[in-house]
Amino acid sequence: MNRTLKIALGSIVVGIVVLGLKTLAWQMTGSVALLSDALESTVNVATALAALIAIRIAQRPADQSHPYGHHKAEFLSAVLEGVMIIVAALLILEEAFHGIMAPRPLDAPLEGLLVNVAASGINAAWCWVLLSQGRRLKSPALVADGKHLLSDVVTSGGVIAGVLLAIVTGHAILDPILAAVVAVNILWSGWKVMTASLGGLMDKAVSDDVLTAIRSTISDQAHGAIEAHDLRTRHAGSMTFIDFHLVVDGETSVSEAHAICDRIESALKHRLDDAQITIHVEPEHKAKHSGVLVL
Q: Are residue 116 and residue 23 in the same domain, yes or no?
């Protein structure tokens, strides 16, 4: 089992532990805001399981039915996570509505808050692991899981502060109002996760910084060619797909043109891990004098 899968499996374990603690905190207090926190943790467990399955599928080698691999499975997981976050937010809004209509005082609030603080601390530590390792391993599923967990940590902090305020002021209605505010924040978080993942499913190009690095590498390594044009890029999970046309002199032999392509591919793969490169070689009359010019 590689590191990405181990982290995804760890998310499930952490999610179950945190869900148990937050459910205990809610049962101890009867707080609608703490219930909202527990409901979001339910989503954490489900999405961590979805991420694990997606990562396993994404790591399958290319086959006859999927010649470009299964890398986009991670984006599907991230979209599913966004949908589930939104569903959780709607459930919280329903609970908040009932709480606003019939507010009630909290039971054993301080003890319950301490349990919730412990759960939030575990989430914060694991969130850092997911974001840092997800970016290093170029795993959209782990990064999406980390971003969701980050929103959970932030909202948990707001929940704890709000419940304390309700205790101090004695206004029980603040508890369900706070739960509604948390739900709106979770809705926004789910929307951002979904839109970012849909970009990957729609073959969104690499960032401007990465594109600049790709163009620079091609220009540096394509000596012997005339120009490169029609550069296209896209992401699929940890893979970066790059394709472009390389114009060479009509007198250039197949072996010489192949050597230029090999040199460019080697440099691009050294600069970008898990890059898959396709180069279409063309004679000089196909030059467009635009795109990536070879100096």
A: yes
